[in-house]
Amino acid sequence: MPHYDLLARPQERQRDWHARAWRVRVTRIALPALALALLATLVLWNQGKTPYSPPPVAEVLPADKAWDNTLFDPRYESRDAKGRPYVVTADRALQDAGKDAPVLLEAPQARLTLPDGREVTAAASLGRYDASSETLDLLQGVTLYLDDHALQTSVLTLDLVTQAAHGAEPVDVAGPTLTLTATGLDGVLGTEVLTFAGPGRLLLTPKDGAHVVVTAKDSISWNRKEQRFVATGDATAAQDKARVAANVLEALYESKQGKGLVLMALEARGLVVATFGDAQAQGAAGHYNVRSGRARMSGPGLRAIFPEGQTLTARDAFAYDTQRGVFVAEGQARLTHTADSWVTAPRMTAHLAPDAGGKMAIRTLEAEGGVVAVQGGARVTGPRARVDPVTGTATILGGRTRAVLYPEEEALTPPR
């Protein structure tokens, strides 16, 4: 049986209003002036999530207001649309006697039950409960506790029936190895998915790994059930000297005992640009396995530019082993050294290492699977070749070498 009190539904309050012995009527009770200012700027959301403006603060809470009813330590227990229990408590509740009058709360606290039985708690200095829509507006010093993470903001609306949460004020989330800042939030607590309005910034600080910073212009979505963050709109992820930019970035993590959230992989989609040292690669999609240090990028539009001026393109994919410094171009790979010096092959493997100035550069490059090398007016073909990254000269390895001199304009035409 639910416990009925000042926070009960309208028909229940009307039936029991005068019968309860603990009702105490007071006159001329007002909340602090800070509550007046906050209530004046609060925008409430009804059950259909259509925003509306509250009446002027002079009507909601005039300074010389004489409240019809007050209650100390109110408590309301009920169930949401899925039959899960929730509880709302406060230090004090104030209300007029009207049928649909909202209840103003001091130090409200709401406790909601998630599908797996865990509880989410929200607390604030002030609040307003609307029985007609069963929504609770929390304001001033709002904290939403999500397991070992705390979300803080100044205004938050909770739909107690659907477990939807909405806030349009700056948000800060802090945990053992995570901090997140954004300009608002929307989500349904029961689905464990919260979307934070951008611009947003996520910092992952694993205890045994390098820090990762994720930013997004539009939003950062946190799916706690699937253990992933999704950043959209000019999204970036940076770790040490490596950086990835894309339309959409997904950061997959694992929650490990004693280590917090540990990043496991990054996935990128749409205009992907990856920078490693002074080299840069671009494509349509990419994946990076943090544990193995291996990255893969797919096309179309695959292109890599290295600090010594070489450009490497491919049709199918780039694969980069960051721990071994091996960069592979797959499918119609082409290395362009200068306008009249280039090499093509089905597959090319470059070994990268820092040069004397610390820049990531190609140290050696091998092409295989039917090589065509052009330099000046000469064209050479063979099964495999080693390419000098500085001069662009190709040395054919194995098989039978075929060298033909072409007119310059023909030599510069890539083979079909």
Give a nutshell description of this structure.
The chain has 416 residues and is mainly beta.
Structural class: mainly beta
Using only C-alpha atoms, the radius of gyration works out to 31 Å
The CATH superfamily of the largest domain is identified as Lipopolysaccharide (LPS) transport protein A like domain
Number of helices: 4
Q: Please state the oligomeric state of the protein chains shown.
A: single chain
Number of strands: 34
Percent helix among the residues? under 10%
CATH third-level topology of the largest domain: lipopolysaccharide transport protein A fold
What's the shape? Answer: rod-shaped
Share of β-strand residues: over 45%
Count of separate structural domains: 3
CATH class label of the largest domain: Mainly Beta
Query: What kind of sheet is the major sheet?
Result: 32 strands, antiparallel
